[in-house]
Amino acid sequence: MGILLDVAYFTAAVLFILGLKQMASPVTARRGIVWAGAGMVLATAVTFFHPEVEGLTNYLLIFLAIGLGGGLAWWSGKKVAMTDMPQMIALYNGMGGGAAAGIGVIALMQAQDMSLLIQGIAAVGVLIGAVAFSGSLVAFAKLQGIMQKTMRFSGQQWFNLLIFAITLGLGLMLAFAGNEVSGAALLAFVLLALAFGVLMTLPIGGADMPVVISLYNALTGLAVGFKGLVLDNPALMIAGIVVGAAGTLLTQLMARAMNRSLASVLFSGFGDTGSAQSGEATGSMKPIDAADVGVMMAFADKVIVIPGYGMAVAQAQHKVWELCQLLIERGVKVRFAIHPVAGRMPGHMNVLLAEAGVPYDLIQDLDEINQEFETTDVALVIGANDVVNPVARTDPSSPIYGMPILNADKARNVIVVKRGQGAGFSGIENALFFLDQTRMLYGDGQSVAAELIQAVKSL
């Protein structure tokens, strides 16, 4: 039986790794999710045959929990709107961290069966899992609009440091407590770890949410990996290590895409609408009618569409793709330009466009398409803001200075679809809107796209 268990866990681990690799491309992402899910089902099923679960009697509660959790996840996954996908991912990621922390708590309560090394690993897992859990819930609340984008108070960083130091001290005490783990100390440790996760996330602005979600994903994976060591479960070890490594890499990529260090994301004020302004843009925004934009795009040689979260809010991706299909039929070369941090989570725009049926070969990232803007007749910006703001190249005083951006300002004509004249989610004024070649097409993204469709059809 031992050999069969090892083979099953190894197979599950291979499915996890292959599934994650498949998720790296939109073309194979669905297959990757299925493979990883099959690995999780296999790992869960064979765990019932593990020698350490002999004599287990609470199968009813186990299957009830699996049924309720699986059913709720299936229902919410079917019902969630694409605009709410980032907060759902933050929420589910937090659940993983919370589960890992809970397992660690139970392991510490049974510390008489563990070595000091495993006991220390269990304590670290509780700390990381609890921080990921509470931090992800705050991220969810911010994305859902339940909580303000930033919440700060005087001396906040020093207060957070004090809380972390006390939490770390309690964790060390629990790690070396041996068989004498104090229930009160364990409770205080968990509560302080949860509090630190909340306090660490409160001051982080909405513009940094893609990085935060990636970071907590990495922490959850790390906590799960530690729980695998505590439970001597190879599937959990490998799954946690793979997820933790992938999340860490993604966090680094997101931070690099914003030209910021992880420390500046966690401890600086970027994203605070009250302090993000670095200067007033000069000039005025120049409006344009949908009929004129339709003519401009229909007779263009090349059009690049730059989607952002505003497109997701308006649920305009289907109409935008319908418009692009009309342009392609007229011989216009159409491409979609995606910035790594566009939207509220990594890959958000790719998911939206894939849902609308946009072919993957028309979707290009920043490095692939930036050199094409200089030969582009029309750059259509729909819902994007910071990722096309030219002050990132020109204004050293700007919070986004040095961040790689899509070079929309180098196109011959720029059309910006926007509800109004306010600043974007991060609160930074966009100089692109005031350039000579930029025209503002005001209105809801979906209704504007419908008007553009009619304008092109009428030609």
List the helices and strands and how they pair.
Blueprint: H1 2-22, H2 29-47, H3 59-79, H4 85-109, H5 116-144, H6 156-175, H7 183-201, H8 209-231, H9 234-257, H10 262-267, H11 290-298, E1 302-307, H12 309-314, H13 317-329, E2 333-338, H14 348-356, E3 363-365, H15 366-369, E4 378-382, H16 391-394, E5 413-418, E6 438-442, H17 445-457
Parallel strand pairs: 1-2, 1-4, 2-3, 4-5, 5-6
Helix pairs in contact: 1-2, 1-9, 4-5, 4-8, 5-6, 5-7, 5-8, 6-7, 8-9, 11-17, 13-17
Notes on the structure:
- The chain is an alpha/beta fold.
- It has helices at residues 2-22, 29-47, 59-79, 85-109, 116-144, 156-175, 183-201, 209-231, 234-257, 262-267, 290-298, 309-314, 317-329, 348-356, 366-369, 391-394, 445-457; strands spanning 302-307, 333-338, 363-365, 378-382, 413-418, 438-442.
- The protein contains 17 helices and six strands.
- Helix 1 (2-22) runs parallel beside helix 9, helix 4 runs parallel beside helix 8 (209-231) and helix 8 (209-231) runs antiparallel to helix 9.
- It starts with a helix and ends with a helix.
- 46% of the residues are buried.
- Mean pLDDT is 85; it is low at 270-279.
